[in-house]
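Sequence in, structure out. First:
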Amino acid sequence: MATEYPHRIALLGLGTIGLSMLAMHLRRPDTSITVYDPRPNYESQIRSTLPSLLDCPESTTLIDDLLRKSRLKLATTVAEAIQNATIIQEQSPEVTASKQALWKEVAGLAGPDVHLWSSSSGISASVQASGCEAADRVAERLLVAHPFNPPHLMPLIEIVPGPETNPDRIEFVRKYFGDVPGPGVSGGSQSASQHYRPITLHKEIPGFVGNRLAFALLREACYLVGEGVVSAKDLDSLVTASLGPRWAGSGVFESYHAGGGEGGIGAFLQKLTPTIQDVWGELGQIDIQGEQTWKDMVVKQTEDAYGPYTPETRKKKEEMLRDVVELQKKKWGEL
């Protein structure tokens, strides 16, 4: 088993992210994955969801085949899940105390050389490890490997080490995700260009970078709708008709570097200094925990515009994401 599957992964937590991560890990032919979730019905969720994530929606034998070949194992306890694991990845709820308790339990059961990864979207590795004993070496082995939803499609892996994380652990996770084949690539072969694009943050910061950028845009979007400047539907149309396509090909800094002409981003910032400063000074300040008139408007307008989020909608949006990512690779190679 160790020779056939050198990467033996324990996935703790099989919600939306966990199931998508399971599909991602299974695309590597050198992995076996043991999963654990405290919910009693998690096996039925795997059986109903995983085939479509692995591009086999009509298969009635896929899960049984994976179980028979020991590529997939279903555990009933944390201890069972992490037995013989070389990588432990958690997708537990975004509650600091829960993650600290989980790593404390894991530290008492796992081997001393096991890689410890968190899929947290905002809780740092140092905070998660703070409840563990120094002798367990959790802080030097733990890092955040934050995927964007859905990770079986989205190329980003945001690697956020703690101040005590061993550099070798960082290099290992970068190589691991860099070698995961993209969706639709069979037999473990790689596509023409690398699908997953791991980036490493140089220091910890709440929310990391991806969500800080996303939440900054969300805050201003909520403010603009709440102030009656624009409708939720039209704001979305603005993003998909301008910022979205541009950022899919260039990103923030490269876009404004091009916007400055021959002088690049330096010229852009200089030419638009008054306008930029006026806008920055007027950005909306809203409180999600306080008065929420804006929230009622955002929720109502969004629900009126789009209705419930159905499986058909999810499938359509995932197909579009696939097309965008493949177009990036086809036109530009590794971005």
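Second:
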Amino acid sequence: MRNYWYVSLSNRYPPPNEDDPLRVVQSVQIKKDYSIVEMTREATPEEIDKCKLVYCGHGYWKDDYIQQNIGRYLS
């Protein structure tokens, strides 16, 4: 399944909510200074601002452009 990938510069990610019964956040890779967040839908502007999310692309983890975009914000 193609998902939306984000880098969280604050180590926060969107919590589950009652309005959206599907699990939105599929996985989170937590590191010391950032987190990589995999979501099933695009983040809302409120989630982007609150969690300091940076969009890295829509696709599979192994896609080159996803890796390049994630690497751009981690270096």
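Remark: Residues 8 and 35 are 5 Å apart (CA to CA).
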